[in-house]
Each structure stands twice: as structure tokens, then as C-alpha cells.
Amino acid sequence: MSGNVSNVDGGTVFAAVDIGASSGRVILGRVHTAGTGSSERIVELEVVHRFPNAVVEIDGGLRWDFDALFAEVLKGLAAAATVAAAQGEQVASIGIDTWAVDYGLVNKAGELVAQPFSYRDDRSRAAVEPVHRKLDPARLYGTTGLQFLQFNTIYQLASEKNLDGLHALLIPDLIAFLLTGQRRTEATNASTTGLFDAVAGEWATEFLSALGLRKDLFPPLIQPGETVGTLLPEIAAQVGLRQDTRVVAVGSHDTASAVAAVPATADDGGENFAYISSGTWSLVGLELKHPVLTEASREANFTNERGVDGTIRYLRNMGGLWLLSECQRTWAQEGFRPELTALLTAAAALPPGGPQINPDDSYFIAPDNMPERIRAAVRRTGEILPDDPATITRCIMDSLAAGYARTIRDAERLADRTVDVVHVVGGGSQNRLLCQLTADVTGKKVVAGPVEATALGNVLVQARAAGAASGGLAELRALVVQSHNLQVFVPELSRL
Q1: How confident is the model at residue 495 (pLDDT cuts 50, 70, 90)?
Q2: Domain boundary among 248, 281, 296
Q3: Least confident of 34-43, 115-124, 438-447, 473-482
Q4: Which of 105, 194, 343, 388 is the most buried (most CB within 10 A)?
Q5: Does the pLDDT at position 267 exceed 80?
Q6: In 255-381, where do the E strands start and end?
Q7: How far is the C-alpha of 30 from the C-alpha of 289, rounded, in Å?
């Protein structure tokens, strides 16, 4: 459920700043009873501002135009203030989530010294080997539990030339700093840096020292639900919010917020679920109480990242719908602009058993003529993929579903857990072909939705901090189930 509704529980609303690698939104969230005479509580969202986000080439590298991004955040908060005021509501707090690993460098005066690099820039590749000469990969994994990706923060920082007098602020923390003046590092995002102890839940300071980095390079840690600070006077005046409006730490890594809103219930397996946060990337894994730091887990390239309430997001970061969106961008440049629904319908009509690619291949990370890259990858397997959008789309969908199935099987084995149901959240939950293929290949029931899981997780953590929601993750997830119509896909073996 979503839309423009009154809050029957006192006029308190929450602003979620939710930014992905290709777009961002500012969303108002309301937690209230379903209606007169009802005791059922639901959470609803209203998007008040949307804006694009993209990697740009600046000073010879791929960077984020952070100044433009922050200006859009301010526009969104101003829109949130206007919409809330028109309905007699008050924005109680602001929560921020974005993608992981990237950071901005801020000097003592609080100035951003350069636009932040994007993880899609190739600069960190050369830093991997020097880091591994100082810190053996097995030792790194045994402490951090982090999946090896060449763009992890640890390798990005190792490529920096001079960090004297600077703080590294991860992107959501950088936004929070500019809003409040307070420098903090939220824990779920800190766990993606490669410099965080997965067991202790603290910075792995010995790794910082081994790489010649200051132990205070990152600001102190803060947990989801804690208050970063209140708005700076000039920010409050600019956006039209009260100066005492709090900025609350949420699962600032967008996947942490998304997993917090996975609608898992005791009726469909309780803890025995896998999740796929499907968007630009695919985050596929399990929710655990303790990290898995075995050598077998490292060899399988699984990551152990923090979730809300101290949980462990045991997952692999896989290729995602970036492959399709980049294909669409190339086709549009060539004058072909098919509707996504028509494209997927045409792909679904094709017979199974076509060529597949490895969607995790680093060959697909950078933007550039994705259809031809995919066809070239298929040629390297000895097969031929026609230069046809429907066929290429089907190849992407089959490849993603097969990758999901492999990853879930590996996670079950490595974590000694049996999965009963797969939850797909995020944009990919609307992709009926991908959800059905995932059910077919995994042989498990797939529950699709909600699309806005990240924003829901963001809002629910804020609501709990304000007393508008209560309980642990099970209770927060019950609100999601009560608030949304979910789609169920069961395996159709005849499709394989």
C-alpha cells in the first residue's frame, strides 16, 4: 500500500533518503492503524522527490557528482517538509541509505576535498596486490569476513596518495555530516569496508595500521536506531524543517535496510529463508546470528556484513539488472526503445536452454555497449547469441536465475542452513520472468515484494527509534506483511 494518506496516530512522519547507483528518492513514511475500528498497524510510503544519479567522468576518473546529489537531497527534504505541513504532519526524523564502499574525503574545516570516486572506476585494481602483500587474503577474511571485490573500500583507500588531516566518510555518513555537522560511521556500511572486525563489531585497527592508515581515519561507529544529530540551523531554514529534526542512523547500506524489511514470517519458514535484493546489483544470501569465517566460505567468496539489530547478512554480491539497464541504454542510443514489459514478454516466449553468461564477471562492471559485451562473453563459451534484444534479455534473465540458484545452494551448505522460501525484494521483484525462473531453477517457492523494501527498512528503524513501532525484526517484518500484497511463484518444472 502506498499513497497520500493521513496519519491517524498523531501526525508524525519519517523522511527516508534512499539513493542507489542510478537514482534517488526522498520518501515520507507513516506508521499507523489501518483504519477506524482496526487494530492492525501498517506502514505506508509516499515518494515526494525523485532524482537521477550517475557516474560522471571528472579529472580523468569515474566519480559521483556529490554536490549535485546533495542539492537533490535538500530539494527532497524541502518537498517532504511541504507535503507534511500541508497535511498537518511533522517530520520527526531523517534516515539515509545508499550503496556501499564509496566515500568522500573531508578536511578539518568540514570541506569535501574532491568529488568521491565511484566503485566503477578502475583505480583500485592496482592496489589489490600491494594490499595482499601486507595482509594475507586468508587473514583478511578471517577477521572481516568480507567478499573479495576489487573496489572494496580497503583497496580504494590504498590507492589514495595523501590522507593527512582527512576523514573518510562513507556516502550516507557524508550526507548526514552535511546535514548535522556530526561525523559518524554507521555500522552496517562500515562492515563493507574490509576494515571492520566481523566478530567484535569494531574497526580492525591493526589493518589500518598495516596499510599506513590512521586509526581515526573513519569517525566513530554508530548503530542503526541511534541519533547522529539534529539539523544545522542553516539546513533547517533552507529545507523548512524544525532545527530539532533528528537524523537517525538506519541500515545505511541500502541492502541492510532492504533485508530488515524482508517479509519473512513463521508461516513461510521463519528464519529459514534466503533473500535476493534485486536491483542494479543482486545481493543473495541468508540472515544469520553469527558470521561464517571458514576457508571454504572465503573460497566461495561469500561476505559477512552487518544487518540491523546485530544480524549478519551472509551473502554474495552478484551481477544484477545493471546488465539489462545498460543494454537498454545502448539500444536507446541506437534508436530502439522497447518498453520493458514488452521486452520481458518477448524474452519469456523464447524456449529455455539458451546461452548463459557469468553475471559476476568484472568484464561487465564498467558502462559500455553491454549487448556486444554479453554476445562476446557467449562467443567465448563456444556458443552464438543473436543480436536480438529479446534473446539477449532472456540470456540475462537465465544467467541471473542460475546464479541465484548456485549462490543459495552454496549458502545453505556453508552456513549449514536449509532454505524453505526465497524472498525477492527491490526492483527485481516486479520482474515476473526473473522471479519465475528463480523459482524454477531453485525448486523453491519465491515470494516477490515489496519493491520499496529499502525505504521500508529505513522508515521502520526510524519509527522504532521514535516509539511509533516496537519489537525486533520479526515485529517490524509483520508490519511489512500487513501493509503489502506479495506475489508468490512456485516452480514450474516444465519450463526448464
Answers
A1: low
A2: 248
A3: 34-43
A4: 194
A5: no
A6: 273-278, 281-288, 303-306, 312-319
A7: 30
**Structural domain count, the chain:** 2
Alpha carbon distance 346, 326 (integer Å): 18
Cα–Cα distance measured from residue 57 to residue 78, given in angstroms and rounded to the nearest whole number: 29
Q: Pairing between strand 221-222 and 41-52?
A: unpaired
Cis preceding linkage at 450, omega within 30: yes
Give, as one character, the DSSP assignment of residue 161: S
Give pLDDT tens digits for 150-164.
999 999 999 998 999
Domain holding 26: CATH number?
3.30.420.40
* Residues recognised as catalytic: 254
| Contact (CB, 8 A) for 441 and 401 | yes
Give me 402's grid cell: 542460475
335-372 b/e (C-beta count within 10 Å ≥ 16 → b): eeeeeeeebbebbbebeeebbbbebbeeebbeeeebbe
How far apart, in whole angstroms, are the C-alpha atoms of residue 78 and residue 84? 10
Are residues 70 and 109 located together in one domain of the fold?
A: yes
Reported as type and span, the H/E element at residue 92 is strand 90-97
Identify the residue with better confidence: 270 or 72.
72
Whether 255 is in a domain gets the answer no
Clarify whether residues 140 and 289 are in a common domain. no
* Rounded distance between C-alpha atoms, residue 30 and residue 9, angstroms: 9
**What DSSP character marks residue 365?**
S
What does the block give as the cell for 487? 506475489
CA angle 411, 414, 277 (to 5 degrees): 20
Strand partners, 44: 30
Relative to beta strand 185-186, strand 221-222 is parallel
φ, ψ (nearest 5 deg) of residue 413 = -65, -45
Cα–Cα distance list, 315 to 1, 318, 459, 461 (Å): 29, 9, 23, 22
Nearest by Cα to 271 from 472, 407, 438, 426: 472
Domain containing residue 163: 12-248
Cα–Cα distance measured from residue 335 to residue 179, given in angstroms and rounded to the nearest whole number: 42
The C-alpha angle 264, 269, 273, rounded to 5 degrees, equals 60
